[in-house]
């Protein structure tokens, strides 16, 4: 079985990123040294300029936003996502969460704008992102707010050519 990346879609079929869905549960479910190795495998996907504690706080805050969205508490989710952006403006997680809130509200155009900000982070520092990250957002943007190439759509993935 291929390794699931943090930013891959969760294999459970929820449509969420693995890190925001079943990652924590899967790490706990693996016994002994395998769980420790699995957790260590995911550390490079955190931003290296932040300590493990800050990375954990970002993940916890993002997961809280997702839980609020799932509970239908969209106003609370939006406030929590905005707080995430205010605390960590140089991290994509808050923008991703704001995109999810907008998407849950049916405001696809605004959701796409937030997701485009996430893409800009991945483009600025591609070494910190799984290769599938841009593919995931390209698919998402194509569904939510397709744009003609001259209007700033994502260019084709070189791997697809």
Radius of gyration, taken over Cα atoms and rounded to an integer in Å: 16 Å
Biggest sheet descriptor: none
Task: Write down the overall mean pLDDT.
Answer: 76
Report the oligomer. single chain
Helix content: 55-70%
Distance between the termini: 26 Å
Structure description:
- This protein is mostly helical and 161 residues long.
- Helices cover 58% and strands 0% of the residues.
- It contains 7 helices and no strands.
- The chain has helices at residues 23-29, 32-42, 52-70, 74-87, 93-105, 108-124, 132-144.
- Helix 3 (52-70) runs parallel beside helix 5 (93-105) and helix 6 (108-124) runs antiparallel to helix 7.
- The longest helix is centred in the middle third of the chain and has 19 residues, at 52-70.
- It starts with 22 loop residues before the first helix and ends in a 17-residue tail after the last helix.
- Mean pLDDT is 76; it is low at 28-44.
Task: Describe how the helices and strands are arranged.
Elements: H1 23-29, H2 32-42, H3 52-70, H4 74-87, H5 93-105, H6 108-124, H7 132-144
Helix pairs in contact: 1-2, 3-4, 3-5, 4-5, 5-6, 6-7
Compact summary:
The chain has seven helices and no strands. It is mostly helical.
Identify the notable features of this structure and list them briefly.
single chain, 161 residues, mainly alpha, 7 helices, 0% strand
């Amino acid at each position: 079985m291929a390794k699931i990346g943090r930013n891959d879609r969760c294999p459970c079929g929820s449509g969420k990123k693995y890190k925001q869905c079943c990652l924590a549960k899967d790490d706990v479910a693996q016994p002994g040294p395998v769980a420790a190795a699995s957790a260590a495998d995911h550390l490079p996907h955190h931003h290296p300029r932040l300590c493990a504690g800050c990375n954990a706080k970002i993940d916890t805050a993002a997961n809280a936003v997702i839980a609020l969205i799932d509970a239908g508490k969209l106003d609370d989710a939006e406030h929590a996502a905005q707080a995430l952006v205010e605390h960590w403006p140089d991290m994509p997680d808050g923008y991703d969460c704001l995109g999810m809130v907008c998407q849950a509200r049916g405001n696809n155009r605004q959701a796409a704008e937030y997701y485009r900000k996430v893409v800009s982070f991945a483009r600025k520092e591609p070494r910190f992102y799984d290769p599938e990250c841009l593919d995931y957002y390209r698919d998402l943007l194509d569904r939510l707010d397709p744009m003609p190439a001259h209007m700033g759509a994502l260019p084709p993935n070189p791997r697809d050519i």
